[in-house]
Amino acid sequence: MREGRSVTRLSGLTVGRIAKERIPVELDPRSGKALGPNAAKFNSYLGVLTRRHVSIIIPSWDDVQEVDKNLMWQVIQQNFDIPNTEVMRRKMLSALATRWRDFKTFLTREYVFGERQNETPCLKYQITDEEWMQFRATRLDPSWQAKRIAAQERQAKNDAPHLLSRGGYERKKKEMKKARAEAAGVESADRVESPPRHEMWIAARTKSDGQMTSESARVVADKIEGLVEQSTQGSFVSHGRDDILTMAIGRPEHGGRVRGVGGSWSHQDFFGARSSRSTVDSCSQEVMQRLE
After folding, report:
1. Backbone dihedral region of 258: left (phi > 0), alpha (psi from -120 to 50 degrees) or beta?
2. Are strands 23-24 and 80-81 parallel, antiparallel or unpaired?
3. pLDDT in tens, 240-265
4. 91: closest CA among 235, 270, 221, 216?
5. What are the pLDDT digits (tens) for 204-225?
6. Where do Polar residues bias regions lie (predicted)?
7. Per-domain boundaries in the chain
8. Taking a C-beta distance cutoff of 8 angstroms, is the pair 178, 191 a contact?
9. How many whole angstroms separate alpha carbon 159 and alpha carbon 63?
10. What's the CA gap between 55 and 249, in Å, rounded?
11. Is the separation of the CB atoms in 240 and 272 below 8 Å?
């Protein structure tokens, strides 16, 4: 049996205790993503914080009381030196919500339906026996299982699956920047520009042998290559959401996460305010026809 992930331990930081000195963390003002040397510690802390303060038996993040959300925001500020603004508060709460949902997904996959279904995560993750019994019962309820099966069927229709690990696009971006820095002889990867999201999308679907994960992924990658060429020639110009990746896929951005960049970005933060142009409009359709 594989060991799976271990519980995060943060030396010098306790969730219920105020740190002697706040740890400085650089945050991207648009995405809220932590940067710099303390980013890993900060991200791990968010995961620990939400596991300690938000019960797994709460149905959804919208059901978490506002007083609890405010408490977690205050605890973050007490331990980390970050901007105290309403915009940053919303971004941090969004990050907490993502980690909380990911944790519940992990428990469901591993301890309810997976290899560890005969084990209990209570001691390891400080969950009470009552909470675990109730959580497990909801996952085994026929109505919830029907939703799970429906979600699995939707995922099965994904004809261009990625190969990203737990670190997602953020980890892939770091790997690409590091490789480019080494190739260019640059000392620090921080001095290398981040790859555009269409390159990230391709990298996430490229196997170790250079092949794409599916024929559909290969077709999109070929269209991306054609659009990049048109862009260098000036015959294609990106307009907000109608960028190279959207045009190559041929479908507008869906709700939720921005494709090719991960879950920290909202559509407005990444693309800016929506323009009056309709996504994949008639002009863009002409571009797509030239790629067929």
Report:
1. beta
2. parallel
3. 888 999 999 988 877 667 888 876 67
4. 270
5. 999 999 999 999 999 999 999 9
6. 275-292
7. 23-156, 168-291
8. no
9. 34
10. 39
11. yes
